[in-house]
User: What shape does this take?
Amino acid sequence: MADSKPLPFPYTSLTKIHGIPTAISLRILKMEVYANASAIPSLLGGGTHGHLGAVMDPAAYAALQGTQPIVAPVHPGPHPGHPNGATSPQITETNRLHKEALDDFAVYTAVVNSLKSMIIDAV
Assistant: This one.
């Protein structure tokens, strides 16, 4: 994400856990994290559940309808790799794919890091 706008999470902060966590307080925390992850669209994991697969147990996520195993995007590097003798349309397409990969990586990283920070603040 090139801009630094806050992510549109339904829960801007998670319910604080005071003292020793209980089963109920942990269930609430989990529900809020899942809701936030689901709220940010993504084509990863089948595209149906946003970024939920980034925070949910893989077996539980696989049990959801319309999902595929989620693979965290990796940084594609600072520059697109153009093949020798590439034509202008090929270069344009390589640039587009590189930008798309950078954007996917940035969004995924922002979602995961934001959720980690929110969990730390809540606990």
Notes: The chain is about 45% helix and 0% strand. The longest helix spans residues 88-122. The mean pLDDT is 91. The helical segments are 23-39, 58-62, 88-122.
